[in-house]
Design goal:
binds flavin-adenine dinucleotide; FAD-dependent hydroxylase; oxidoreductase; FAD/NAD(P)-binding domain; alpha/beta
Length: 393
């Protein structure tokens, strides 16, 4: 049996960020990750390009992770366009008048994971345990015991960070609202002849949704949303046929296109936990709030959540309260609910409105874009939300 102040269950980007933030509060932290050491430390490309706000970048800088991301892997996002159907009236967002050169930054998920792992592995107060699965959690008095397949850890706070289909959430008997969009996303990188000028496009076409995310090196990340069976067909389609089909699907707007990465598919299921806190226990990352990727906020909110948790734990320590005290964790829960609930609901609404093909939905979304583009305060608010420059470096 070993002791750490905090045990994090799940060493993904949210769990590792939480470990770094809580260690910075002077706590000793263990991180238990199910994956073996190799892929944990050096994760492979998984197709996800994460659009990060300015606030998220400032968090990664303060955690010592940003410096481990190679400059060439950071692609600035200068403008975002939203289009619907074949009508030529896009809604656009840019940085004009905001004193910065980018709305946000695109970084591959595996680079973010690697940078956080590297930062955590250099902290004396963090122990990283790879290849370790949690069996159950027990609370006795003020302590939590985490029973895993290689032994036991006692701690004052256990944090569930094992992703949206969280087993730890179930072990703690915390329910969740789950929204199944009955669609999947195919993601991959493609090189192309026509330059993207660092403009991202989200196109809600009839029968499909396509996002083109501009990355460095004359390439874009393609994010295609379709019914599950069609995504599976495309994922395994022969390369030449795949290139030809994607060129057609994006309306040939990027010229000749060539697949330059592996292809990955993700089911579209959004999750919101009924509670984020229990005595001696908290949920962070997708285990707490698993967003539909359409508004690119999942990881940004995961970073905010772990930041709120560490700040509330730090404030509690200053008052002499334990990191696992329910009053400390309830403060975190309130903050995180306020930060996430409106966006979660709005994102699900947008995802439904923009992916249904009945005539009423088509008319509504075209009208919605025209109105939104004409209302300057609305555009300004959305741009502010996309950038999230609160306390940015
Ligand atoms: C296609 C796509 C595009 C996206 N784009 C964006 C974007 O542009 N912007 C944005 O902010 N977000 C985006 N997201 C969301 C973002 O990827 C997630 O929010 C983020 O990866 C969640 O991190 P996490 O650490 O909570 O969970 P995960 O990344 O799922 O990590 C969970 C970790 O826990 C481990 N684990 C699982 N079970 C156990 C267990 N029982 N015991 C121990 N370890 C366990 C897993 O091996 C894994 O390492 C996107 C998501 C997708 C699918």
């Amino acid at each position: 049996m070993t002791y750490h102040d905090v045990t994090i269950l799940g060493g993904g980007p949210a769990g590792l960020a939480a470990a770094l933030s809580l260690e910075a509060q002077g706590l000793s932290v263990a991180v238990l990750e199910r994956a073996p050491q190799g892929p944990w430390a050096e994760p492979a490309f998984d197709g996800r390009e994460i659009a990060m706000t300015h606030h998220s970048v400032s968090i990664l800088k303060s955690l010592g992770a940003w410096e481990h991301i190679p400059q060439v892997a950071i692609s600035p996002l200068r403008e975002a366009r939203i289009e619907t159907g074949r009508s030529n009236h896009p809604l656009t967002f840019d940085t004009q008048g905001r004193g910065v050169d980018a709305l946000g930054y695109l970084v591959s998920n595996h680079c973010i994971r690697r940078s956080l792992y590297l930062a955590a592995s250099r902290r004396p107060g963090i122990s990283l345990l790879a290849g370790t699965s949690t069996r159950h959690l027990r609370r006795i008095g003020d302590e939590m015991t985490v029973v895993h397949d290689r032994g036991e850890i006692t701690c004052r706070l256990a944090v569930g960070a094992d992703g949206r289909f969280s087993q730890i959430r179930r072990l703690q008997r915390i329910g969740a609202v789950m929204h199944d969009f009955r669609r999947a996303m195919l993601v991959c990188r493609m090189a192309h002849d026509v330059p993207h000028h660092h403009v991202a496009t989200q196109w809600f076409d009839d029968g499909q949704t396509v996002a083109l995310l501009p990355v460095n090196g004359g390439a874009s990340s393609i994010v295609l949303t379709l019914p599950v069976e069609q995504i599976e067909r495309l994922r395994t389609l022969d390369r030449d046929a795949f290139n030809a089909e994607i060129m057609e699907r994006v309306g040939r707007r990027l010229g000749n296109m060539r697949l330059v990465s592996t292809r990955h598919a993700y089911p579209l299921k959004a999750v919101y936990a009924h509670r984020f806190a229990a005595p001696g226990f908290a949920l962070v990352g997708d285990a707490a709030v698993g967003m539909h990727p359409i508004t690119a906020h999942g990881f940004n909110l995961g970073l905010k959540g772990q930041e709120s948790l560490a700040e509330e734990v730090g404030a509690g320590l200053a008052r002499g309260e334990s990191p696992g005290s329910l009053s400390v964790l309830r403060r975190f829960e309130r903050r995180h609910r306020l930060a996430t609930m409106p966006l979660f609901a709005a994102t699900n609404g947008i995802a439904t409105l923009y992916t249904r093909d009945e005539p009423a939905f088509r008319v509504l979304r075209r009208a919605g874009l025209r109105v939104a583009d004409a209302v300057a305060p609305f555009k300004s608010m959305v741009t502010g939300l996309l950038m999230d420059r609160q306390r940015a470096a």
